[in-house]
Amino acid sequence: MYNAPGTTEPEHIYAVYQGVIYEASPTRPGISFHGYPWSAGQGRPSLPRRILRQLRASAEDEGYLKEFDQWLKQYG
């Protein structure tokens, strides 16, 4: 999860599945989220380093570190 400074509700939730980073944003804050594959660009900031470290560790634990690195190289 990522909370912006000074907020209590998550701004985004991140997960990794088969090496692909997914981001979920609130559709109705505190009630529901919409998930989609994450990618950088179009003026979007990079993922915080602590989030990337956690996602990388999850990908490695699941045996998808190579796919994770390829995803970041292409979309990060």
Key terms for this structure?
single chain, 76 residues, alpha+beta, 3-stranded antiparallel sheet, 2 helices, 26% strand, globular
Low-confidence segments, ≥5 residues, pLDDT <50? none
Rg of Cα set: 13 Å
* Distance N to C terminus: 18 Å
Look at the structure and give the mean pLDDT. 86
The helix/strand order is EEEHH
Any overview of this molecule?
This protein has helices at 49-61, 65-75, and strands spanning 13-17, 20-28, 32-37. It has a 3-stranded antiparallel sheet. It has 76 residues and is an alpha+beta fold. It has one domain (13-75). The two termini are 18 Å apart. The radius of gyration is 13 Å and the shape is globular.
Task: Summarize the SSE layout with pairings.
Layout: E1 13-17, E2 20-28, E3 32-37, H1 49-61, H2 65-75
Antiparallel strand pairs: 1-2, 2-3
The gist of it:
This protein is of the alpha+beta class. The chain is built from two helices and three strands. The protein starts with 12 loop residues before the first strand and ends with a helix.
